[in-house]
Every structure is written in C-alpha cells, then in structure tokens.
C-alpha cells in the first residue's frame, strides 16, 4: 500500500473516539489520509448524537481524515465513498466466508444485510472553520460489526432485533479477521476517494450508491428535526440525496433519519 494515501495508520487499544482524535489532529494541521483504528472506544460516537458501543477487540472501529475540495451540496458523496469502500471490502472477503452479495446500503449510510439488519454505521464530522493543513477536514468514521454480535452474545435490548455481524452471517460462523477487513477497506478507499476528485468519478459514486441502496423502492418515514413525513423513496439525486415521493410530489432529503416502513418488494 506504499502508493496509497492511507499509510499513516495510528492504532489505539483504547481511546474515547477515533473521530474525536482525528478531528483534533486535523485542526492541528494533520494531512489527508491519516487513519485511526481502535480496539475499544470509551465514548464512540454515532449519528444524530447517539453513542456507538462495541466490546473491546470485537469489531472494526476506524476513522479516516479527508480534505475533499467539494461544493457543499456534494459533500454527502464523501460518506458514500467510505460506505461503498466498506461494501467493496466485505464483498472481496475470502469466498469460503460466503459473504458476497450480502451487504446493501440503507440511506444515508448504514450497511445492512438482505433483511435490513445493521452491519455497519458511518459518521462524517467536518470542521469547516479549521484552517490549518489545507481544505477543511472531514473525518469519516466507520464501525463494522465484525465479530460482535457473535453466536452467544447478549446484545443490549435496543440492538437485539436490529443488528447483525459478519461473523453471524459468515458460513461456519467462525471469527472473521478484523485486520483483513481493515486492509480491504483501506485498499478500496484509495479508489473511492480518488473518484471524489473529478465530476465523472463523483457521478460513478452516486450511481454505485444508488445501485447498492436498499432504500430506493421502499416506503419510508423521514424524521427531521422539525417533524416527520412519509412517502415512497424513488431514487437519489446526482449528489446522493434521497428523493421521496410524497403524494405525487418529489421531496429531496439531504440529511435525516430514514425508517423503512415497508421494504421494497
Ligand atoms: C451510526 O450511528 O450509524 C454511525 C456510527 C459510527 C461509529 C464509528 S466507530 C469509529 C468512529 N469513531 C466514532 O466515535 N464513531 C465512528
């Protein structure tokens, strides 16, 4: 990986949050490409102010520092690039694990299995005011459920019916090597992040996102800070935003929590 921008991989046995760490590094001028990986996070961050929990040593908890030079309305593609890289990496795991074709993306950027159980979450955090080190930083963190939950784990009640893991989905149910998943994500990230740099590459990211997106065709409820609405998700814009048909009128969702009320058929 010597020609990759993701060669500076910083490892932590325990840290509060790899996203927090890289945002602070970015504010101090760290360059694009720094990666932080933790065995355990004591204050892992999830989307919409939630926490992100995983027992020590079980899952892949990582963040990457990017400095994309993108118009504001295309920033969603940064998280898409990371989500797609993770899908590609899972798709390329050894054939005997039988994980090919498993992973889809629930908009905006949850990785889910065929039945909608969550395999991974992606959280992008930007500091548009940071001036050191080049274009403003976007830190994208991903937590991939690699070995937790496993066959005998008691999950917290809020996860019991919604989460799954590579281990649970893999043929044989044995441990999946986190290092192998990390190496795959970094390899695929190089390609996906390179695509962000030009309009054709960004078009490709948006169309790959649409192709993987299990939300398109589903009846959804969109929860926004000022209320909710329901409709049929019909597609994505070229920037990767979700288009929802509400009583015959298209509504574009840039950010929000999406619940699949009825999956697509
Ligand atoms: C979600 O809510 O679905 C997003 C979860 C993102 C979790 C990852 S784990 C590594 C990185 N560091 C954090 O504090 N959060 C992200």
Map the helices and strands.
Blueprint: E1 9-12, H1 18-27, E2 35-38, E3 60-66, H2 76-91, E4 104-106, E5 110-112, E6 118-126, E7 138-144, H3 157-160, H4 166-169, H5 178-195, H6 199-212, E8 219-224, E9 227-236, E10 242-246, E11 249-253, E12 257-262
Helix pairs in contact: 2-5, 2-6
Bound molecules: biotin (BTN).
Describe the sheet with the most strands: 7 strands, mixed
Query: Terminal Cα separation, in Å?
Result: 41 Å
The helicity comes to 10-25%
CATH topology of the largest domain: BirA Bifunctional Protein, domain 2
Number of helices: 6
- CATH-scheme architecture of the largest domain: 2-Layer Sandwich
CATH class of the largest domain: Alpha Beta
Whole-number count of domains: 2
**Radius of gyration based on Cα positions:** 18 Å
CATH superfamily of the largest domain: Bira Bifunctional Protein, Domain 2
Proportion of β residues? Answer: 25-35%
| Strand line-up in the sheet with most strands | 1-2-3-7-6-5-4
Q: Kindly state the number of beta strands.
A: 12
Which cofactors or ions or other ligands sit in this model?
biotin
Secondary-structure element series: EHEEHEEEEHHHHEEEEE
């Amino acid at each position: 990986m010597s020609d990759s921008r993701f060669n500076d991989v910083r490892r932590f046995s325990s840290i509060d949050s790899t996203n927090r760490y890289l945002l602070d590094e970015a504010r101090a001028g760290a360059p694009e490409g720094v990666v932080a990986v933790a065995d355990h996070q004591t204050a892992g961050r999830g989307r919409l102010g939630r926490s992100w929990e995983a027992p020590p040593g079980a899952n892949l908890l990582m963040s990457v520092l990017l400095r994309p030079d993108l118009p504001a309305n295309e920033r969603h593609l940064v998280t898409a690039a990371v989500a797609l890289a993770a899908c590609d990496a899972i798709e390329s795991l050894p054939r005997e694990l039988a994980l090919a074709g498993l992973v889809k993306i629930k908009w905006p950027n949850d990785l889910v299995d065929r039945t909608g159980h969550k395999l991974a979450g992606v959280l992008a955090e930007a500091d548009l005011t940071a001036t050191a080190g080049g274009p403003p930083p976007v830190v994208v963190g991903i937590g991939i459920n690699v070995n937790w939950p496993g066959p005998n784990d008691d999950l917290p009640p809020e996860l019991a019916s919604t989460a799954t893991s590579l281990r649970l989905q893999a043929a044989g149910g044995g441990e999946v090597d986190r290092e192998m998943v990390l190496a795959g994500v970094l390899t695929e990230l190089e390609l996906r992040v390179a695509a962000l740099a030009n309009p054709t590459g960004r078009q490709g990211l948006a169309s790959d996102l649409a192709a993987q997106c299990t939300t398109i065709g589903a009846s959804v409820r969109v929860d926004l800070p000022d209320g909710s609405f329901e409709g049929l998700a019909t597609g994505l814009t070229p920037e990767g935003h979700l288009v929802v048909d509400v009583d015959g009128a298209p509504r574009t969702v840039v950010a929000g929590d999406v619940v699949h009320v009825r999956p697509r058929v």
